[in-house]
Every structure is written in C-alpha cells, then in structure tokens.
Amino acid sequence: MTQKLFLVITLGFTACFSAEPSGNVTTTTEPTAVSSTETSSGVTSPEITTDFLTGRFNPAQHPDFVAVGKPYATKPGMMLQKEVFEAYKKMFEAAKKDGISLTVISSTRTFEQQKNIWEGKWTRYADTKDPVERAKRILEYSSMPGSSRHHWGTDLDVNDLNNPAFEGKGAHAKVYQWLVKHAAEYGFGQPYTPLGEARPYGYNEEKWHWSYLPLAKKYRETYVKTIKDSDINGFKGAETATDIKVVERYVGGVSSFCK
Ligand SMILES: [Zn+2]
C-alpha cells in the first residue's frame, strides 16, 4: 500500500519517470526478432524496425544492450545500447573530473513499461472528460506507449525529474550548466528544450533528459517517415493519437540540435 501510494505520488510529479522494476527489465511483450546490424566501426546496433522503434522487444535479451550498473546508475536493471553506454561512461568520467556528479535514474523502457506509466495517468486524470484533452495533459511530460525515445536505448534521464532542481540554486544547477557546455562533446543533446518559436510542439522542457544523437537522430528520422499515428495503439486513449498528430508533434517535436 505504502509503495503503491509512493508510486502514484511520484508519477504525478515526474515526467519520464520509469516504472522499471528493481531487477532485470522484463516485459510481457513477446520478444520479437530484433536483430543487429554492424556498422563500419564494427560496433553493432539494432536493426531499425517498427518493433524496435516502438519498444516491442526486450532489451535485457538484446545483444546490443548492456546493463548500466553502479556507479553510473541509481539502481540495477537499467539498460542502454552498448555504444551509448560507452559514450556515457566517457562523459561521466569527464564530468567527475570537473566535480560534477552524473547519475542515470531512467534509461530504456519497453512498450509495456511505458503503457503502465501512461495508463496510470489515464486513470488518474479521469476528471478530464474529453479524451483528446486528457491525452494532451499526460503528453505534457509522458509519451504514448510506442512513441517514447526511451524505447531506443539512446536516451536517459539524469539526477532528478524536476526542472527547478537544475535551475538557479537547485541541487543540480551546476550539472545542467556542465551538460549544456560539454554533453555534445560526447554525442549527447537535450531534445526537450523550452517550447516556443524554435520548438512549437511537443513535450514540455525536460532538463534531465539527454539523448545520444549519433544513433537517435537516425531513429527519429526513420520513425517520422515510416510510422503513422494509427500505428500507435494497444493502450487506453490510443484513438486520440491521430487527432493530436503524435508522430509529427511529439516524436518529431524536438530541439533543432537533435534533428
Ligand atoms: Zn526521459
């Protein structure tokens, strides 16, 4: 009961909070044949299929994924693509030398994990009767299952899930300043910058969410070209995806640096 209440409160406040179990990543989605392709450098990464892009595979059973343990993450069971983790470790060490402490608090999430987050909010926001409005309320910070960058193994949340913690006198203000200055040197960028003229659509700003662009740019590009709003289905409220233009506005709606 206490644990459940804690989860409800946390989910209410945070954006890309992951309901990752404390053990290995598990999924009720039948693991599909998501295979690897080798790049010129000899590093393998997943073949870019619809199942891969929409999180319908099990990263814990995928050869291109690796567990992110201590001191890099707060808890066991988090996964990243191997290439992403190698880049992250370099960034972590460089930050450490500058007195900056980076911690991964959420990384890869499956369709099923995102569905748990989404449907939890769908139930809690039942006071918003209009389904499109209810979905948009959730979309301020949380993705529809199948449309999260967290499915790709390239994106991670660091240190905290609240913008104020990274601002002014916040506990992680120096962390954010360091990332803005140096993350790009390691391939990382912030996809969810403030909404405005430069970024008219999508999720609210997330100062904690960073993306490994050498891979994620390709995934976003393929996603917006090949996946339709009607392909985003299999959860409560999915019928709103077409009205909301989820692919164009939310998957597509990232900072220009991340395109
Ligand atoms: Zn995130």
Report on the structure:
The protein has a four-stranded antiparallel β-sheet. The chain has one domain (35-258): Muramoyl-pentapeptide Carboxypeptidase, domain 2 (2-Layer Sandwich). The protein is built from nine helices and eight strands. Strand 1 (36-38) and strand 2 (44-46) form a beta hairpin. Helices cover 34% and strands 10% of the residues. The chain has helices at 2-13, 50-53, 82-97, 111-124, 131-138, 173-182, 213-226, 241-244, 246-251, and strands spanning 36-38, 44-46, 65-68, 78-81, 104-106, 155-158, 188-189, 209-212. The chain has 259 residues and is of the alpha+beta class. It is globular, with a radius of gyration of 17 Å. Residues 1-31 have low confidence and may be disordered. The structure holds zinc ion. Zinc ion is lined by residues 16, 150, 155, 157, 206, 209.
Short description:
With 259 residues, this protein is an alpha+beta fold. The protein has nine helices and eight strands.
Features:
9 helices; alpha+beta; globular; two-stranded antiparallel sheet; Muramoyl-pentapeptide Carboxypeptidase, domain 2; about 35% helix; about 10% strand; four-stranded antiparallel beta sheet; disordered N terminus; binds zinc ion
Chart the SSEs and their pairings.
Layout: H1 2-13, E1 36-38, E2 44-46, H2 50-53, E3 65-68, E4 78-81, H3 82-97, E5 104-106, H4 111-124, H5 131-138, E6 155-158, H6 173-182, E7 188-189, E8 209-212, H7 213-226, H8 241-244, H9 246-251
Zinc ion binds next to β6.
